[in-house]
Sequence to fold (390 residues):
Amino acid sequence: MACSSCSTGKDGQPKGCKNNGTCGTDGCNKLTVFDWLSNMSLPGGVEPFNYVEVRFKNGRKHFYKNTENLSLSIGDVVATEANPGHDVGMVSLTGELVRVQMKKKKENPDSDEILKIYRKASQKDIDVWQEARSREEKIKQRSRQIAIRLNLSMKISDVEFQGDASKATFYYTADDRVDFRQLIKEFAREFNTRIEMRQIGLRQEAARLGGIGSCGRELCCSTWLTDFRSVSTSAARYQQLSLNPQKLAGQCGKLKCCLNYELDTYLEALKSFPKTDVKLKTKKGVAVCQKIDIFKGLLWYAYEGEWMTWHKLSPEQANKIVAINKKGDVVGSLEEYELEIQLEEDDKKGFKDAVGEDSLTRFDKPKNQRKRKNKKRKKRKGNPSKSKNA
Fold:
């Protein structure tokens, strides 16, 4: 989702900041990477890493080998090897960080599958590339009409032309296997180019299209998130979130990826809590866990038959009662342990928060009283006889 000021023009150069093909603030490109080693020089005798990372439409990135030892910098438009022909993209990363990224994504630099960079893109390459990009939206609409006419249960979400306009890749989502042999024939006849169909998941579709999440920010998958981990409803249960599909589902219709961000912290905190399905046995009766508060470190129990009366315990006290029950003994009642917690809380309240205890309208009250006093004085001055009689 590039901004209007930094989007590229027909010549491949940005309209706004003119920072050689990329955003000057490095904030409006999908899956952008900040090169924090760009100002550092290599030690003596160390050759620069001759691989670069090239970004294509909607954050698609690949690694290429710089066999010609071209002087490349971030934002340069380059022509890369493709099958068939060549593709056109922008350099998104150079130098030693490319080595780190390849190691992270388990890419072998010595592999024969890594393609090479032909040259820096000429003006003719950029013109052909921009002309092909301008056709993508119309072709996407037309391809959807053809798919509907053929009664295919699939959704064409995006179309991407190769840089030399010799091939068009159609990205689609489908629940089941789709027989699109007839579809490819009609596409080739309609658009007069090579056709490639590529199925993607719902998360990948949301990443390509982009959007704004319920948090008010751009989607994580379209800005920085590269690996999609499975998200289960247990992540919401551990964090005590309401199992509301409308709130837990993201733009893709699946569970939000951010449910996994704080899950490890919650699991670590829950290790000190007893299991909620364990009942506490007392002489007064059997107590069942009703609620837990991970942040405050508290549990609430209620006796069977007295569900409206809750007793607050700490994890340490609950674990102590569980340990006693495992030995075959029972405690007197929960009130004994609840009283200890109450005394500890009273001791902690030795200080007072002056800001929190003050009223928000504390500045308004004196003003109202002064106005009332001034009005009474004016009335007395206007009617001196009434004031004397009074």
